[in-house]
Design goal:
Distance between the termini: 37 Å
Low-confidence stretches: none
Order of helices and strands: HHHHHH
Radius of gyration: 15 Å
CATH class: Mainly Alpha
Largest sheet: none
Number of strands: 0
Length: 141
């Protein structure tokens, strides 16, 4: 319970949480609190927002010029897919999986998450955020 409510940084490998933007840190903390108090659909919103923020930062580190006009998840992964950078393909596949199966459906009011689904999504998103941040492409471009 403490990890979800007070020490969300412990859920990441050492040093990873510190590299999140303030927006992403806020949303990870909120997602953890929501899971702890079984506000599961809210947890999904927050962890997906955090993931999208990390994705935007990752994209801006890699693409310095001629970025996509709208920095939304689909545009970003589509643009990144055109780049030939080592390790990028697996990251894009994971991000597209999350976008297609969770992010886009979560925007619809009929979608609700139970605790197992919210926890799985939380872990999945922490994993892909960590992968992006640990990538040699993070801040190196």
């Amino acid at each position: 319970m403490d990890k979800l409510t007070l020490n969300q940084d412990i859920l990441f490998a050492p040093g990873i949480f510190d590299q999140l933007s303030e927006i992403a840190k806020y949303d990870v903390k909120e997602a953890g609190m929501c899971i702890a108090f079984e506000r599961t659909t809210a947890a999904a919103f927050h962890i997906l927002r955090a993931t999208e923020d990390v994705l935007r930062n990752f994209y801006c580190y890699i693409i310095k010029r001629k970025r996509t006009a709208k920095l939304n998840w689909g545009n970003i992964t589509s643009h990144l897919a055109t780049k030939k950078k080592k390790g990028l393909n697996g990251i894009i596949k994971n991000l597209d999986y999350i976008r297609e199966n969770f992010r886009n459906p979560t925007a619809h009011p009929e979608v609700r998450y139970d605790i197992e689904e919210a926890q799985s999504l939380f872990n999945l998103c922490i994993d892909i955020m960590s992968i992006m941040i640990k990538s040699p492409l993070w801040k190196k471009g």
